[in-house]
């Protein structure tokens, strides 16, 4: 097989820009995977550097350069970007396609995730959060990941795709293999299984249209009035499956971990349960501080950017968590200010591939925290946390997060 | 005060709509900003300024009231 998108050896990289950095490796004793990125800044490595790990790739550390890479798709493409490099890689729609071709599916999806569309989902988002939390509130403890943070966005996916609740555990299993398995054979089989599920789903929606996103995708027509290519429909379903689960799960995990160790922040949100604007301002700040995604781009042609030589197919990794604490952009960037007024964080990216689900994702987090605080008193981290429960990579996060709280005595005795 | 949107830059984050829904909305086709009232009431000027400063794309700006620039 001819490989078309492999990076060349890094003989164009000057030694002063070479840094030994493995984004997938979280050293023992590091409890927050984002710290491996912030450590680079503290060490003063160049703000554009190259690491030979994971097939070799650049890293941008400045807000301004990360924005440039998001915006300028003529140099920094989203087509065939995986780190480490894998070929062929599924071309997800519309994320894996550059403008203008990407506009076809972008426009198809855009109306489904506007603030107006998301407002129509709020009742169901609230109900789903309440049901899950009621399931463990009186236990006085939970594993936040397995009891809530992975079930909630997966349930939201089922709801948006018009799938029955009984499918939740099957979808969770598919997602967990996809996001956590490091076995290439298991991963290849898993991707095949996800596509088979999507194929069956879209066929069913074509036969029996429903009031859901899957139906809208399969029934959409291109500019000639024809159905979109079946492969693109599957690739779009695949994107919605993979983009809205792990990211939301781990953003929530980060946020609840912070709240569990910061009673004043819990009180801040509890005091604003009837102040949606103030509540959202705090959520926006937690979004800035807890940016879990490190995104990939591929250089389209040999070129120079900011005095640095790049070669075609060089990979570039964009750590949003670093951009979001750039002192050139944010006042007191290391301070978590839940009333921060100006907050142009890059957690959802910018430019043509801005996370299309950003409004929904924020509402999922906001509704979950509101429902949580209405049901659960002050909570903290359990004394025992499983070892090795953090991971790095393109999404950073936690495989376990044990929380505990006091249960009212009369209820506990009943 | 007037508020002006650059639709070529807007990517539909809807941060402006969150911050000042009286002035900003999102269209149902492309998911981009719609200015509901271009002429900003005095009582909303601070909220609109904050929305402009929070646009991650720099797609919004304010201008003095009066005829649109370039109209002459």
UniProtKB/TrEMBL annotation, chain A:
InterPro entries: Cyt_P450, Cyt_P450_B, Cyt_P450_CS, Cyt_P450_sf. It comes from the Bacteria. Keywords: Heme, Iron, Metal-binding, Monooxygenase, Oxidoreductase. The keyword Heme applies. Gene3D superfamilies: Cytochrome P450 (1.10.630.10). Belongs to the cytochrome P450 family. This is Cytochrome P450. It comes from Novosphingobium jiangmenense.
Automatic annotation (TrEMBL), chain B:
Keywords: Electron transport, Iron, Iron-sulfur, Metal-binding, Transport. Gene3D superfamilies: 3.30.70.20. Coiled coil: none annotated. InterPro entries: Fe-S_cluster_ET (IPR051269). PANTHER family: FERREDOXIN (PTHR36923). This is Ferredoxin.
């Amino acid at each position: 097989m001819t490989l078309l998108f492999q990076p060349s050896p890094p003989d164009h990289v000057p030694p002063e820009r070479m840094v030994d950095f493995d984004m997938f490796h979280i050293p023992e004793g590091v409890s927050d995977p984002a710290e491996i990125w912030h450590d680079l800044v503290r060490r003063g490595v160049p703000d554009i550097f190259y690491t030979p790990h994971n097939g070799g790739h650049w890293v941008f550390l400045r807000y301004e350069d990360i924005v440039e890479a998001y915006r300028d798709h003529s140099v920094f493409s989203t087509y065939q970007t995986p780190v480490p490099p894998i070929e062929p890689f599924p071309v997800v729609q519309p994320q894996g396609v550059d403008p203008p071709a990407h506009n076809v599916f972008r426009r198809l999806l855009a109306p489904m995730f506007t603030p107006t569309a998301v407002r129509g989902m709020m009742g169901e988002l609230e109900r789903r959060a309440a049901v899950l939390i009621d399931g463990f509130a009186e236990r006085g403890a939970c594993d936040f990941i397995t009891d809530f943070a992975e079930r909630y966005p997966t349930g939201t996916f089922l709801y948006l795709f018009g799938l029955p609740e009984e499918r939740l555990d099957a979808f969770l299993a598919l997602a967990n293999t996809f996001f956590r398995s490091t076995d290439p054979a298991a991963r290849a089989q898993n991707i095949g299984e996800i596509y088979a599920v999507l194929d069956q789903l879209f066929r069913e929606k074509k036969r029996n249209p429903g009031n859901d996103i899957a139906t809208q995708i399969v029934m959409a027509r291109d500019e000639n009035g024809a159905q979109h290519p079946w492969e693109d429909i599957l690739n779009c379903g695949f994107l919605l499956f993979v983009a809205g689960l792990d990211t939301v799960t781990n953003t929530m995990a980060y946020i609840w971990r912070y709240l569990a160790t910061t009673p004043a922040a819990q009180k801040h949100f509890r005091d604003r349960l009837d102040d949606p604007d103030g509540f959202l301002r705090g959520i926006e700040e937690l979004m800035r501080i807890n940016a879990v995604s490190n995104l990939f781009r591929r250089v389209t042609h040999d070129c120079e950017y900011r005095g640095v030589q790049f070669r075609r197919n060089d990979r570039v990794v964009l750590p949003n968590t670093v951009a979001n604490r750039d002192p050139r952009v944010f006042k007191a960037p290391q301070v978590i200010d839940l009333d921060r007024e100006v907050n142009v964080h890059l957690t959802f990216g910018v430019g043509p591939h801005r996370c299309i689900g950003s409004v929904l994702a924020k509402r999922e987090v906001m509704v979950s925290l509101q429902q949580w605080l209405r049901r659960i008193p002050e909570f903290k981290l359990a004394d025992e946390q499983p070892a090795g429960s953090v991971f790095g990579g393109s999404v950073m996060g936690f495989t376990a997060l044990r929380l505990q709280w006091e249960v009212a005595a009369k209820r506990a005795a009943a | 005060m007037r508020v002006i949107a650059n639709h070529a830059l807007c990517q539909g984050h809807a941060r402006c709509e969150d911050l000042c829904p009286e002035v900003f909305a999102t269209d149902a086709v492309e998911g981009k900003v719609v200015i509901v009232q271009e002429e900003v009431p005095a009582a909303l000027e601070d909220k609109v300024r904050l929305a402009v400063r929070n646009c991650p794309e720099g797609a919004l700006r304010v201008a003095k009231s009066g005829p649109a620039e370039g109209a002459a």
